[in-house]
Amino acid sequence: MNSKLIVSISKALLLARWKQTMVAAIGVTFSITMFIALLSFMAGLNDLLDGLLLNRTAHIGLYNEIQPGKDQPVNRSAIYKNQYNFIRSVKPAAARQQIYNSGAIIRTLEKDNRVLGVAPKIITPVFFNDMTINIAAVINGIDVKNESRLFYFNDYITEGISDDIEKIPNSIILGKGLATELSAAIGDRVQVSNISGEIFQLKVTGLYQTGVQDLDKTQSYASIATVQKIMGEPNTSITDIQIKLKDITAAPVIAKEYASLFDIDALDIQTANSQFETGSFVRTLISYSVGIVLLVVAGFGIYNILNMMIYEKMDTIAILKATGFTGRDVQNIFLVIATSIGVLGGLLGLLLGFGLSAIIDQVPFSTASLPTIKTYPINYNPIFYLIGGIFSLLTTFFAGWFPARKASKVDPVVIIRGK
Amino acid sequence: MKQNILEAIHIYKEFNDPVKVKVLTDINIEIAKGEFVALTGKSGCGKSTLLYILSTMDTDYNGELLIDTVSMVHKKDKVLAGVRNQKIGFVFQFHYLLEEFTVLKNVMLPGLKLAKLSDKEIENNAIEKLKILDIGKLAMKKANQLSGGEKQRVAIARALINDPDIIMGDEPTGNLDKKNSDNVFDLFKKLSEEFRQTLLIVTHDESFAERMHRIIQMEDGKIISS
Questions:
Q1: Displacement of CA A219 from its chain's centroid (Å)
Q2: Which of A269, A341, A267 is nearest to A302 (CA)?
């Protein structure tokens, strides 16, 4: 009952000075709009930049590193057991890069519910022969379906269809830079020689572009079977298992676990690309700081307007107190005024922020290095709207708190006798 | 049985700023139910100061104050606000109507705050009070559309809404011309005689005071006759 009365008085005071109310609310609206648009845009850019590398990088990669055995024969000998054995210049044995028992490992990984997906891969260095010129490059044998699902392989195909490498035998997708050097187009045949010098003819079925020049000049993709054939390996042979996890932050721990479980080398994404998180963090920090500064400025606007309103409404406050309203009632009236400005301005701000984000999302943005991006990136994360909403309420509440305290302390005798 | 609505016992007040000045010295007043009392004295004699103490708005004094036989000393702000809301009606020199509201809503406000009756009942009461004061037809007008005399009458209706034990007036006719002054005085008289309403009116207008039932005269912070 009492709260209904307080709300009705607040409403009357608000409407009596609706122009001032509007100015205050527009201040909040503007800052929330900018806050939302700025954060959405920044987060979109962050995702884009991180995605440049992170999308195509496995959270955990399993492989066999070529390295000398840790356990040398001399250490096993009983005779030299109690001595220090210094061995210099140990060379790796002719170890194979292929992963042992890869089928079983993949089946185990696919059952692990922390794992989003697994993509096997076989990598081999080759030479592309163009008349008298040999160009060193790498062929990645991939499982197109998993590679597209987990690492967005399809997004980087600029010409042709990625599935063709599995359908058409002896076919290949070339990096755009590599294709230019070989002056090869779709449908052309290119000649490839493996390490042993055997020559293969492969048909170009597609071109891809990542935006990273070094990759585009040296990488090409074929089906796993094609690469196994070039390497002269059996059809179970693969060199890498790429794992994508549901929770990227768990990668270092899980990598260690797999390394000991499968007796293999495991590299997690955090160790491989530590610089990325730093960049994202700093960009996010800057956009939050700017957004919050905007809101605080709007808060000062509300503070000013409420302060003025209190001086104007001294008579009203005095008579309310004289007729039995408590200091708390008066304080609540001004708090209701402040928070309703916050709610009104905030809600409108969230809507306009969404609108502005949607407009930015339509602005054309094309760059040669990012073939899949056509417009500016926007991240519509609901968290931004939540933070914006909560923060607009908090700022207006505190901006109203101090003037409201002042109003509650007005001494009616001073006002009434002063007339 | 004579019942005291208001009782002041040995009330002292002094201002300490900038120098110590005694404003009120040993004030003793008893006001019984139904009395129509004038509090008079020269300007600066402390009569308004006394009224604000009696009305519980000023709590900075020494002595005992009983309203409806309940002591008002050392009570919390919230309790005093409740007493002002329910037991005291105010009429000031200036009308203090809220210009954002209609006349009716202005009159209803203290009733809505008390919240003893439903909104509908309070509205009916408010219309009734306005009719008693011959301004029933103004109910739906905005407060700022009224003349000075009309505003003061609305203020009186507002003072009456919670059927207070006592109505206190601080120079309620001070801002009005002769005709409107007489009008307001006649209303007070009517309230006193027809409705047995207790009234305590501060005024410096001798002719005005002489027409009331009882006169309390003050000089230099003391009561010289009552």
A1: 25
A2: A341
Strands (E) across A131-277 are located at 133-142, 157-160, 171-175, 189-193, 199-208, 219-223, 240-245, 265-268
Which of A131, A133, A144, A106 minimizes the C-alpha distance to A227? A144
Q: Do A324 and B48 touch (CB under 8 A)?
A: no
Whether the Cβ atoms of residue A206 and residue A165 lie closer than 8 Å to each other: yes
Chosen for mutation from A319, A409, A419 (greatest number of chain B CBs closer than 10 Å) is: A319
In sequence order, the 6+-apart residues with CB closer than 8 A to the CB of B204 are B40, B41, B42, B43, B47, B171
- A104 contact B CB<8A: no
Angle, CA A99 vertex, CA A93 and CA A105 arms, to 5°: 145
Subunit contact A323:B90, Cβ cutoff 8 A: yes
C-alpha distances in Å from residue A263, one per residue of A62, A116, A305 = 10, 22, 69
Separation of alpha carbons A319 and B95, rounded Å: 9
Nearest to A16 among B48, B82, B100 (CB): B100
Element at A374 (helix H, strand E): none
For residue A31, give the 3-state DSSP assignment. helix
Residue A338 · residue A399 · CB < 8 Å? yes
Q: How far is CA A262 from the centre of its chain?
A: 30
User: Which residues neighbour A273 within 8 Å (Cβ) at sequence distance 6 or greater?
Assistant: A53, A54, A57
Asked if the ipTM is above 0.90, the reply is no
Q: Is 0.90 surpassed by the pTM of this model?
A: no
Q: Tell me the three state secondary structure of residue A330.
A: helix
Cα dist from B74 to B7, B16, B107, whole Å: 16, 20, 30
Query: Cα(A41)–Cα(B27) distance, rounded to whole angstroms?
Result: 74
> What's the CA angle centered on A114, arms A111 and A115, to 5 degrees?
65
Instruction: Report residue B28 as tokens.
Output: 């003793």
Q: Which residues contact B171 (CB under 8 A, 6 or more apart)?
A: B48, B92, B93, B202, B203, B204
pLDDT at A1 over 60: no
Q: Is pLDDT of B1 > 90?
A: no
Residue A417: closest CA among B200, B185, B46? B46
Task: Summarize pLDDT for B87-102 with one digit per residue, the tens.
Answer: 888 888 888 888 888 8
* Contact state of B92 with A416 under an 8 Å Cβ cutoff: yes
Q: pLDDT per residue over B124-142, tens digit each?
A: 888 888 888 888 888 888 8
Which of B75, B113, B123 to mutate: most A Cβ within 10 Å?
B113
Q: Which residues, in sequence order, are bridge partners of residue A99?
A: none
Contact A24, A339 (CB under 8 A): no
Give φ, ψ of B88 to 5 degrees.
-125, 135
On the question of pLDDT at A359 being above 90, the answer is yes
Among A202, A63, A173, A55, smallest CA distance to A120 is for: A63
